[in-house]
Amino acid sequence: MFRRSIYKSPAQLRSMVEPGLITAAALDEVRTLVRPGITTGELDAAASRVITGRGAESNFQLVRGYRHTTCISVNDQVVHGIPGERVLQPGDIVSIDCGAQYQGWNGDSAITIVVPDAAQPELVARREELSRVTEGSMWAGIAAMATATHIGQLGDAIQTYIEAQGPSSVSGDAYGILREYVGHGIGRKMHEAPSVFNYRTPDAGAEIRPGLVLAIEPMVTAGGEATFVEDDDWTVTTVDGSDGSHWEHSIARHEAGIWVLTAADGGAAGLAPFGVVPVPIP
Ligand code: MG
Ligand code: MG
């Protein structure tokens, strides 16, 4: 049986730069709009305008049965929330996942934002800490990709980072890592082999070498790891009602190093604390 290699050529890696930057631009736009009173549907429309305005299409709409440009997950929703009429409230923790396909190549990225709320500083601090831990664990996994030999080392780096942060200094809660949802290869399709676990596994996993492009996307809760899918058949929500956060980037490993395709700076700022300097794709 023919299987497409999970390793891409230098020319193919270069083709993934533009869809990554378009994905980043869409999330940058959404980031500026998040505020109390805006609906998740309005944020979705803004992301759609950026993507189509740059001659790309939403790859989320290429997923069977999904008709939106983003997934927007609020509070106890961790991933796969459907944008619509929901109005954002002060203090909400909001994860926004988005992707663009451009000339047949894909980008995939997610951010978490806490809506400002001067009246609930403890709530905001707790949720910002959850987002910071989740984002940091993503960067730990990305940094590991610069030197790791196998994918299993990325999950180890992510879990190790999260364990070193918890329990929360604000709430005392330990952090949970979703087990049923994982990162993935990305290229001609948004979701490709191999899977990228956000936790330690007994298997070493696929070899990491030049040409590998991964979407690394830890999904972390401020409580338990158990989730259920809501009646809309999409939204993934925590069983214990704890808050969730989701961060994601698409990253290329190439001959000279790693480059974060969905960050305008290639990941320089996020990788700096880990002593890793991203290298543009040659
Ligand atoms: Mg995504
Ligand atoms: Mg993804």
- Annotated CATH topology: Creatine Amidinohydrolase
Our Rg estimate from Cα atoms comes to 18 Å
Overall average residue pLDDT? 95
Helix content: 25-40%
Enumerate the spans where pLDDT stays under 50 for 5 or more consecutive residues. none
Number of domains: 1
The CATH homologous superfamily is called Creatinase/methionine aminopeptidase superfamily
Name every ligand kind in the structure: magnesium ion
| Overall 3D shape | globular
Distance between the termini: 32 Å
Strand numbers in spatial order across the main sheet: 8-7-9-14-15
Provide a concise account of the structure shown:
This protein is α+β, with helices and mostly antiparallel strands and 282 residues long. 28% of the residues lie in helices and 23% in strands. It is built from six helices and 15 strands.
Describe what this molecule looks like in 3D.
By secondary structure, the protein is of the alpha+beta class. It has one domain: Creatine Amidinohydrolase (Alpha-Beta Complex). Helices cover 28% and strands 23% of the residues. A five-stranded antiparallel beta sheet has the order 8-7-9-14-15. Strands 1, 2, 4 and 5 form a four-stranded antiparallel beta sheet that branches. A three-stranded antiparallel beta sheet has the order 3-12-11, with no helix packed on it. Strand 11 (227-229) and strand 12 form a beta hairpin. One magnesium ion is lined by residues 97, 99, 108, 110, 217, 248.
